Amino acid sequence: MAARAIWKGYLKLSLVSCAVAIYPSTNSSSRIRFNTLNRKTGNRVQRQYIDSETGEPVEPEDQVKGYKVGKGSYILVEDEELDALKLESTHTIDIEAFIPRDEVDERYLDTSYYIAPDDRVAQEAFAVIRDAIRDKGMAGLGRLVMARRERLLLLEPVDQGLMGTTLHSAAEVRDESSIFDEIPEIKYPKEMRDLAAHIIEGKTAHFDPKMFEDRYENALIELVRSKQDGHGTKAVSAPKPSNVVNLMDALRKSIEAEKPATKKAKPSERKKAAPGGRNSAKARSGAGRSKSMKRAS
């Protein structure tokens, strides 16, 4: 099934613009999903909004958004009023600036999307904008409105298209000092750091997301299959990690545990001649006798 665009509008660089569509870069449709049922009847249940005072259900046409300004006091805002807030970014991604990509703190990255030209007429202008960004080795910054919120968008070339990543605002990212200032300075033997570095070297690899499976999702699939087949379920308790009592001892044991096991030779391999071994000596002596016999003849 072809991906469905979640936003359509225009990508604009100064006076150059083109029609584009935005698509999700991730897919969660393959995940196990559960419905909420009535245990007694086995029927699905429906969610309802209930009036907190009267206890009566509130129908969709009677629901309205409200901004709280005091105890029990709200300012009502209609959907039509929200739709009337027409910003340019509602239908246009205007690239306002270009920045070095490595200057963007990873904490500000939110959700990534794919951006592609929306029609054949837009392809040439889209390619010009994409290639210009790639040639400069920069990332573009623009704005767009998604779900009635204006978001800052980071634009980067990816293959033949662009990847747009929404960014958190400065107010949304917590200052790390409020958390890390409570961590005291710790003095420890240099050998501990060397041992930890040795463990890291042994586990060094290249990033490949295919290496990591969603083990919880796999466990859910096995649970559903087991119950579908009429089998019981086994309670599995994962071992709980605890604080290390002897850190130096734990580091040393970790290095030993990470060492690859030595492969034992098979009996047939042990019988083979080793360099300088008895079998090779016999072979050399036999070869020498045959050479001397040839010279004698």
Topology:
Layout: E1 7-13, E2 16-24, E3 49-50, E4 57-58, E5 65-70, E6 73-77, H1 79-83, E7 92-94, E8 97-99, E9 109-117, H2 123-136, E10 139-146, E11 149-158, E12 161-167, H3 177-180, H4 190-202, H5 215-228, H6 247-258, H7 267-271, H8 278-296
Parallel strand pairs: 1-7
Antiparallel strand pairs: 1-2, 2-9, 3-4, 5-6, 8-10, 9-12, 10-11, 11-12
Descriptive notes:
With 297 residues, the protein is an alpha+beta fold. It is built from eight helices and twelve strands. The chain has helices spanning 79-83, 123-136, 177-180, 190-202, 215-228, 247-258, 267-271, 278-296; strands spanning 7-13, 16-24, 49-50, 57-58, 65-70, 73-77, 92-94, 97-99, 109-117, 139-146, 149-158, 161-167. The strands form three sheets. Strands 7-1-2-9-12-11-10-8 form an eight-stranded mixed β-sheet. Strands 3-4 form a two-stranded antiparallel sheet. A two-stranded antiparallel ribbon has the order 5-6. Strand 1 and strand 2 (16-24) form a beta hairpin. The protein is extended, with a radius of gyration of 33 Å. The relative contact order is 0.10. Residues 262-297 have low confidence and may be disordered.
Question: How is this structure best summarized?
Answer:
The protein has 297 residues and is of the alpha+beta class. The protein is built from 8 helices and 12 strands.
